[in-house]
Amino acid sequence: MKIIMLGAPGAGKGTQAKKIAEKYRIPHISTGDIFRANIKNGTELGKKAKTYMDQGLLVPDELVCDLVVDRVAQDDCKDGYILDGFPRTIPQAESLDGALAKIGESVDYAINVEVPDENIVNRMGGRRACVGCGATYHLMYAPTKKEGVCDACGAELILRDDDKPETVQKRLGVYHEQTQPLIDYYSRKGILKEVDGTMDMEDVFRAIVGILGA
Ligand code: ADP
Ligand code: AMP
Question: First and final CA of the chain: distance in angstroms?
Answer without folding.
Answer: 13
